[in-house]
Design goal:
It is built from eleven helices and seven strands. It has 260 residues and is of the alpha/beta class. Strand 3 and strand 4 form a beta hairpin.
C-alpha cells in the first residue's frame, strides 16, 4: 500500500481498496487506483492470546480452518466467503460484537455506524422495504435516500440502473435482503453498550444521518473517542471513506497500540 500511494500521488490519483468485492457497487472509481487484496491471504493464530492476525484479503473460512485445530473458532457472520476486513468494518455489527464478546477485542473502530439501540414497527417496515428492493434490484433506493443529507439529490435513474447491474454481477441480492431482514437481531441494550471498556474510536461526517446514533453512543459511553469530519457524508463523492481525515484518525488511534 505504501508503494502504491507513492506511485499514485504524482498522478493525482486516489486509492480505493477492494477485498472480496462487497461494497464495490455504488462506488465511483474515476481517477482512482483500485488495490485488490483478494490474493493477500494468510492467518496466524495465537492460541494463548486467543487472537488471530490476518492478511488484508483473508476470508472468514480461512480463519475458521486455522482456528479449529486449536479448539477455537471465529465470531463471523453466516457467509463463509466474506472478507474479514470488510465484515469487521461494519459499525453496527462491530458495536454489537463489543457487547457480546468484548474479551476478543484489543480496540475497535466504528465508521459511520453506532449500533442499534432499539426496534419499532417503523424500523421493521424500513427493513422490509429495503430488503424487498434489494431482492429486485440488489440496491435499495429507500436506504440511499435515508443516508443522504437533507435536500441531496439521488443519482439519476440511469445511474441507479448501472449500480444495480454492478451489484447483481458482484453480489448475492437474496443474501443482502436476508441480512437486511436480520437487523432486529443486531439490537443491543444501552446498558450493554455502556458496560464496554474496549478502547473505541468512532468516525462520522457532519452531513451523515448516522451521526445522531454515534452522538447517542458517546452519551451512553463517554470513553468513546468521536472524530467528526466536516462536510463528509455517508457515501458518494463526499463519503467518509474518501476523506483523508479518516486515515489520519485511524493512524492516530491505532499507532500507539501497535496495530497500524
Amino acid at each position: 500500500m505504501r508503494s502504491d500511494r507513492g506511485q499514485s500521488a504524482p498522478l493525482g490519483l486516489k486509492i480505493a481498496v477492494q477485498g472480496t468485492g462487497h461494497g464495490a457497487p455504488g462506488t465511483s472509481l474515476d481517477g482512482t487506483m483500485l488495490v485488490n487484496t483478494s490474493r493477500m491471504t494468510g492467518v496466524e493464530v495465537d492460541p494463548k492470546g486467543r487472537t488471530a492476525r490476518v492478511a488484508a484479503g483473508t476470508i472468514w473460512a480461512d480463519v475458521v480452518d486455522a482456528a479449529v485445530p486449536h479448539g477455537l473458532t471465529a465470531l463471523h457472520g453466516s457467509a463463509h466467503d466474506v472478507g474479514v476486513v470488510g465484515y469487521s468494518l461494519g459499525g453496527h455489527i462491530t458495536s454489537q460484537l463489543l457487547t457480546l464478546r468484548p474479551e476478543r477485542f484489543i480496540s475497535a473502530t466504528l465508521i459511520a455506524g453506532s449500533g442499534r439501540f432499539g426496534w419499532s414497527a417503523e424500523l421493521a417496515k424500513e427493513a422490509e422495504v429495503d430488503a424487498s428492493e434489494m431482492e429486485h434490484e440488489c440496491i435499495s433506493r429507500s436506504l440511499m435516500t435515508r443516508l443522504s443529507p437533507p435536500g441531496a439529490a439521488l443519482p439519476s435513474d440511469d445511474s441507479l440502473k448501472v449500480l444495480s447491474s454492478a451489484c447483481v454481477a458482484a453480489q448475492d441480492r437474496l443474501a443482502l435482503a436476508a441480512v437486511t431482514r436480520s437487523r432486529r437481531d443486531h439490537v443491543m441494550t444501552r446498558a450493554a453498550a455502556a458496560s464496554v471498556v474496549v478502547p473505541t474510536l468512532a468516525i462520522v461526517g457532519t452531513d451523515d444521518p448516522m451521526k445522531a446514533g454515534l452522538d447517542t453512543l458517546v452519551r451512553i459511553r463517554p470513553s468513546v473517542k468521536l472524530v467528526v469530519v466536516n462536510g463528509a457524508t455517508h457515501a458518494g463523492p463526499r463519503g467518509i471513506l474518501r476523506r483523508p481525515e479518516l486515515l489520519a484518525a485511524l493512524h492516530g488511534f491505532l499507532s500507539p497500540r501497535g496495530s497500524f
